[in-house]
Each structure stands twice: as C-alpha cells, then as structure tokens.
Amino acid sequence: MLWMSFKSRSMPEGRELLGIVFALVGVFLISTHGDINNVVLSPLALVIGIISAISLAFYTVQPMRLLSKFSTTLVVGWGQLLSGTLLCLFVNPFAPTRHWDTGALIAFAYLVIGATVLSYSLFLVGLKVVGSTKASLISCAEPLASIIAVVVWLKTPLTLIDLAGMACIIITVVLLSLPKK
What values do phi and psi take at 10, rounded to 5? Predict the structure, then answer.
C-alpha cells in the first residue's frame, strides 16, 4: 500500500486504510494472542514471516506492468518455464524415481495444476481486477485457512483472541469486497 501510494502519488481510499488497520490488528492478535511480550511465533517463523511479507509486496506489485501488456496465461506459462528451468540447476528432474502409485500421481497433478498453475493464474486475474493494494490485503485471509487446518488436523483449541483476529481479517475482506459508492 505504501509503495502504491508513493507510485501513484495519492492516498488510498478510506476503506483501504480501514482494511489495513483491521488486517494488521487481526494478524497481530493471531500471532501474539494480544500480548506483544508473548509472541507465539518462534524467531525462525518471525524471520520467515517478514521475508514472506516482503515477497508478497513484490509479488503483488511487480506483475502489474506485465499484466497490462500480456495475458495472465502467458505470464504464468513463462514463470513456470523459467522457474522450472532454474530448478533443474539444483535437482535432476530426469533421475530415476521410485514407483509412483495412483495417490502420488494425483497429489503431483494437484500440486502442479491446482496449487501452482490454477492458484497463481487466479491470483493474477484478481490482481488485474482489484489492484495491488486490495489483492495484498485480501490475501491476509490466508492465515485463516492455516488456522482452520491447525484446528481440524492438529486439534489445537481456538481462543477468544484467535476468533477476534479472525473476525478482523474477515472484516478486511468484506470491506474490500463492497462496491464503491
């Protein structure tokens, strides 16, 4: 949001600013349980989170110029080709592997098609439609999916603070989804 405001030389609209406040409060509540002295993240998780935040900022701003000139499919295709080629420097894709059963093939197909190509394509389409600031704020809903997975699979209990943080993030998404007046 700061970069886009600087670049466009304009302030974000009121509900974007309000969305930023709710998103930050929600993430703060979830990650600290409301106590700044009791961060429930390990130092490694905090560092990875900061790196991820910087990457997300780059990830939502950088493609805008490409998307104004080229289709989403072309951008994703080239991204997949270049990253796959670069990965070949570190991993030999032609090395013999153990037997792949049906479950492994289905999981691999899901990772390639669903979790990579489809999700990135949909994100880029959304980025093109709503812009960088709104896309990055709406992506704050991702921790909700993580929380739900932790509660369902790891049987971790939710606290009232967690629910308040989740509510703040949902409010952010709803605020940014409302049509302009």
Answer: -145, 155
The residue to which tokens 């059963």 are assigned: 101
Alpha carbon distance 60, 138 (integer Å) = 11
What are the phi and psi torsion angles at 155 (to 5°)? Answer: 55, 35
Q: Is the full-model pTM beyond 0.70? A: no
Q: What is the pLDDT of residues 7-55, one digit of tens each?
A: 778 777 777 788 888 888 988 888 788 888 877 677 888 888 889 878 8
Cα separation, 119 vs 127, whole angstroms: 12
Tens of pLDDT, residue by residue over 107-141, are: 888 888 888 888 878 878 887 787 776 776 667 66
Taking the C-alpha atoms of residue 164 and residue 106, their distance in angstroms, rounded to an integer, is 37
DSSP 8-state secondary structure symbol assigned to residue 95 = S
Measured CA to CA, the distance from residue 128 to residue 63 in angstroms comes to 9
Tell me the HSE value of 55 on the side-chain side, using a 13 A CA sphere: 6
